[in-house]
Amino acid sequence: MDWASSFNELWHSTGLYGFLDGGLGRAIMILVGLLLIWLAVRKKFEPLLLLPIGFGGILANIPVAGIAEPGGFLYHIYEFGVATGVFPLLIFMGVGAMTDFGPLLANPKTALLGAAAQFGIFTTLIGALWISDLLPVIDFSLQDAAAIGIIGGADGPTAIFLSSKLAPDLMGSIAVAAYSYMALVPIIQPPIMKALASEDEMRIEMKQLRHVSKTEKIVFPLMVLGICLLLIPDATPLIGALMFGNLVKECGVTDRLSKAAQNELINIVTILLGLTVGSKLAADQFLTFETLGILILGLVAFSIGTATGVLLARLMNRLSREKINPLIGAAGVSAVPMAARVVNRVGLEKNPHNFLLMHAMGPNVAGVIGSAVAAGVLLAICG
User: Is residue 217 part of a domain?
Assistant: First the structure.
């Protein structure tokens, strides 16, 4: 028996050898995974997703194991649930079952604020193509730019769904950027809101919303799906899953299905989705100039979406007798319900009697629909 050869093979099969043999990038990405876990646990930034994403990133960068490579268990889960777009759609189904469209139905004009917030998506698409032309180290195709732009919608499942279709090689970077900026909503949005709205505008108190009937809540998801399938069929997978989940909740005769969608289904899929997204944080895919560009462009997209929502709300006040607090325009990005909570907090800082949470939920849920529609448009144009 050749003991030297056996020990040499054993040494080459260890993780320590893998790190010493050009594994610096893997070590860096493991530290990135630990950072995401720290943000989830210590700072409570989107813990339900940042924790599994961070852990999946660690698993993907373990030398030799090949957990995220063909044959590895994360690879098989990714191929089944993410590459096919199944996991994001199931997440949307659960989100629909947890969403109350009542505030939007009670004040329909706030849907415009959700639409305005999507402006950041298309601006960033153009910006990504411009940067690609300007910097030779970055090469974004039209499909890449579209997938990057969707970060501005602040909707993780939509970003994953679109990037899995248009730019699967960038999905890890796009998903991390999307969920990171969603987690940083309480830090990013308030300075933009305060810079674009006056003190008097931020003190505006809004009237109590009217009661929305059960019939309206049942008809709404069917109506939205009908409009979508006629005008933007490419968006119907996302919109259909969202509206089905909401209909199951609002119809009142399928409580078991509603509770399953809100709990068991979305929890299981969230775990698997987070781990498989993290599996795309392999060093050779993430440590690139393109990733830096995605992070910068994602921040720009999110900031523009916030700003356009506030500015449109100010414009609406010029054209309407019934004033709205422009802060609720910032909730048009679809980070539900965190953006609405941030709006409510800033409103209370300016006026202790200014409870904006339910008013902000209108543009907030409109933003969910808007980002899904924007994804459908981009898929139709660039797919």
Answer: yes
